[in-house]
Amino acid sequence: MWTKAQSELLNVILDHLIPPRADGSAPGAGALGVAEFLPTATPFAEDPVGTVTAVLDHVSKTAPDFLSQSAAAQVAVLKATEAAVPAPFACLVRLTYMGYYSRPDTRPYVGVGAHPIHPEGYPVPSESAESLAELTAPVRRRGQIYRNA
Amino acid sequence: MKNEPVDVLIIGAGASGAAIAWSLLETRMRILCLEQGGHLQDKDFPSRRDDYELSRYSYFSVDPNVRGAKEDYPINNSDSCIAPVNWNGVGGSTMNFLGHWPRMKPSDFRAKTLDGVAEDWPIDYATLEPFYEANDRNTGVSGLGGNPAYPDYTPDLPPIPIGTLGQTLAKGFNEKGWHWWPSDVSILSQDHDGRQKCVNAGTCDLGCAAGAKGGTNFTYWPILENAGVELRTHARVAEILVDSDTGFATGVLYFDKDGQLHEQRAEMVVVACNGIGTPRLLLNSKSKAFPDGLANRSGLVGKNLMFHPLTGVAGVFDKPMRGHEGPMACSILSQEFYESDPARGFVRGYGLHSGRSTTPMTFALGGYGIDNPIPWGQEHRRIMDDVYPYLAGLTVVTEDLPEEVNCVTLDPDLKDSDGIPAPKITYRLGENTKKMLKHGEEKAKEVLLAAGAKEVLTKGDDTVWWRAGWHQMGTCRMGHDPETSVVNAWGRSHDVKNLFIVDGSIFVTSAAVNPTSTIQALALYIGDSIKNNFETLFD
Ligand SMILES: Cc1cc2nc3c(=O)[nH]c(=O)nc-3n(C[C@H](O)[C@H](O)[C@H](O)COP(=O)(O)OP(=O)(O)OC[C@H]3O[C@@H](n4cnc5c(N)ncnc54)[C@H](O)[C@@H]3O)c2cc1C
Ligand code: SF4
Fold first, then answer.
1. Most buried by CB count within 10 Å: which residue of B47, B178, B352, B397?
2. How many Å lie between the alpha carbon of A98 and the closest alpha carbon of chain B?
């Protein structure tokens, strides 16, 4: 889908949008392969390829040496791009989040199960009747709080 | 094409259509329900997919404008600060609803008498109480009896777990000395009536593949279809027909799946299309006798649209709140600020609902009902790692007062896939609501801090949640006076004596609670009134 040059640039940009954890325990969006998700995102954006290309073109035009820049300089270029082409940039951000978090392997990074949510769900213990009675005791003690009508 | 006539024709197979069909079963009348959508098959529940969250932004969005399915009707929401959301198919919006099940309170039926605003309902809490009970039995309700915010009643099933998040917030409310209670929910905490209990999957808006949620696709419809009620799906009603001599409704015109137009005749027509679909259908049913829309001599069809405008406040705690585990909207509910108190500077009140935190993608994209993604870059990583897992939130759910400027009309250009004019919403927040939202935000912050939050996050602007028009009420209100209401005290049109309306459009006021238990109790009450008035039903 993407040319080699586009892929290289896109992966670096994606790793800025969702960066890896400093200790390497969670990958950035580029390393995770979100670039492959983007062309498939037609249910969520009118023209994902065109939109992403607009961002890539803007970066290439305004910062031809982007790939050799320092991380801080790259972030500055991306901020300028966001200001210059806000709609395509916002769309790229949105689709990047979708591509990243729709992958089951990313959910456990933030404490959420990788599995499809049904049929397994999550085991959540019920509070005992005694503990609920204790928690609600102050509320009961106040008595009726609704108006008779 | 003409079909064999029926006794009762119900339009809409959602919460209210199913409930009234059940009530009328015992009459042995021939009942037909026309529903514009279809049945959702078990394999099609998105929560069975690895990438389940994506469906929220496409074919399983709560917003019909995003879904854009053939059975959906588009809604022009460009003149509104809240986007109406729904589901169009068997179960109606109980397919993707969240199962929060509070009742209205006695004072909710007396806003005019008690607080000098809006109108009183023509019925009261005591009248509806037996129908709340019957509907709860049919639906399967979990909760804790003895809530001091209500006249005494006890749900059949014990409460669902309130979880770490609910326990933490409850301690905050106790610290403040404020009311809270485990939420009543139409979600099964135990296996019940051949249905499976909730597995705490947390994605109730994606349809509940477990069948634990009280959607009428799981509760009423299997019983109704077994009992011989005919449910004709992919049948979209374009117009209700009236006899210009008698003034009675004679039936409807509807489009089938292939776009073919049918006429269906009936002795009695019951409209159950939700607070926007119903006025849309009536306004589309113009005739010589009703040039401004059917049953609209009062001019009030489509007027007084009410939502429950809401905003959210979240606290960041120092241990994971596990907010994604457990039914999405329901853990605990505070009604400390529900009843009017003149000292607060506004009338009526609001509830503080504990929202569980949502799944990662939805959170990153701005949260449920919001389209405002969190920042990208290192700040993104920090928020997802250090904030998201530690969040517990409260939503401020306000009572909306009826105002005629807030309304449903027909859009001159927009049409559904059958070419039927689509609704346009004109809606803005009232001054009273704005004051309530501000007050609620402050009180929610106080509770979160009392519960131990180390930081409190607010939306940071005056807007309310965007895709939060899930409760649609007031657009065909009930009342004794034909000049100031559309239907009478038991849902019968003042103008067309064999036409009934049973959905939330007949609400006189919105109260500050989720409406579906009341909508269904009302539908059962209307069914009962029909049975009790059989001899003189159309007089
Ligand atoms: C995301 C979400 C969350 C919600 N959460 C809660 C909650 O926690 N608690 C609560 O109490 N409520 C909740 N609600 C609201 C609840 O779903 C509604 O109050 C309830 O379903 C309304 O019942 P109804 O019968 O009026 O309409 P619906 O249940 O929406 O049914 C109307 C039916 O009519 C059909 N229809 C409309 N027009 C036509 C036509 N012209 N021809 C044929 N068929 C037609 C529609 O397709 C639909 O199936 C939620 C709603 C949503 C969308
Ligand atoms: S959390 Fe419970 S009610 Fe909600 S979808 Fe999952 S099983 Fe159904």
1. B397
2. 6
B1/B62 same-domain check: yes
Do B484 and B435 lie in one domain? The reply is no
* Distance of alpha carbon B166 from the chain centroid: 23
* Min Cα separation B205/chain A (Å): 12
- Hey, is A107 helix, strand or coil? helix
Q: How far is CA A61 from the centre of its chain?
A: 27
Question: What residue type is assigned to position B497 of the chain?
Answer: K
∠ CA A127-A113-B361, nearest 5°, is 110
List, as ranges, residues 270-329 from B with C-beta within 8 Å of A: 320, 322, 324-326
CB within 8 Å of chain B, chain A residues 6-65: 16-21, 26, 43-44
Asked if A17 lies within 8 A of B376 by C-beta distance, the reply is: yes
Residue pLDDT tens, chain B, 539 long? 778 999 999 999 999 999 999 999 999 999 999 999 999 988 889 999 999 999 999 999 999 999 999 999 999 999 999 999 999 999 999 999 999 999 999 999 999 999 999 999 999 999 999 999 999 999 999 999 999 999 999 999 999 999 999 999 999 999 999 999 999 999 999 999 999 999 999 999 999 999 999 999 999 999 999 999 999 999 999 999 999 999 999 999 999 999 999 999 999 999 999 999 999 999 999 999 999 999 999 999 999 999 999 999 999 999 999 999 999 888 999 999 999 999 999 999 999 999 887 899 999 999 877 778 999 999 999 999 999 999 999 999 999 999 999 999 999 999 999 999 999 999 999 999 999 999 999 999 999 999 999 999 988 788 899 999 999 999 999 999 999 999 999 999 999 999 999 999 999 999 999 999 999 999 999 999 999 998 888 88
Instruction: Give the chain A residue whose CA is nearest to the CA of B165.
Output: A124
Domain enclosing residue B29, as ranges? 1-106+214-308+401-429+466-539
Quote the CA–CA distance of B300 and A116 in Å, as a whole number: 47
Atom 6, ligand 2: which residue's CA is nearest? B201
Residue of A110, A130, A134, A148 to mutate, testing the B interface (most B Cβ within 10 Å of its Cβ): A110
B48 touches chain A (CB under 8 A): yes
Name every residue whose Cβ is closer than 8 Å to that of residue B457 and which is 6 or more positions away in sequence. Answer: B313, B314, B315, B316, B387
Query: How far apart, in whole angstroms, are the C-alpha atoms of residue B190 and residue B422?
Result: 42
Query: B500-533 burial, b if ≥16 CB within 10 A, otherwise e?
Result: bbbbbbbbbbbbbbbbbbbbbbbbbbbbbbbeee
Q: Which of B463, B484, B512 is the last residue of a domain?
A: B463
Sign of CA dihedral B463, B464, B468, B471: negative
In this structure, are B262 and B315 located in the same domain? Answer: no
Distance from CA of B431 to the nearest CA of A (A): 24
Confirm or reject: Cβ of B62 under 6 Å from ligand 1.
yes
Residue B477 CA to residue B491 CA, distance in Å, equals 9
**Is residue B209 lining ligand 2, measured as CB closer than 6 Å?**
no
Atom 8 of ligand 2, residue of closest alpha carbon: B208
Minimum-distance ligand 2 atom for the alpha carbon of B196: 7
Angstrom CA distances, A128 to B168, B181, B184, B363, stand at: 16, 15, 17, 31
In a shared domain, residues B330 and B458: yes
Give the Cα separation of A145 and B171 in Å (integer).
19
Phi and psi at residue B464, to the nearest 5°: -100, 170
**By the CB < 8 Å criterion, does B124 face chain A?**
yes
In a domain, B119, yes or no: no
**ipTM of the prediction greater than 0.90, yes or no:** yes
Q: Is the CB of B464 under 6 A from ligand 2?
A: no
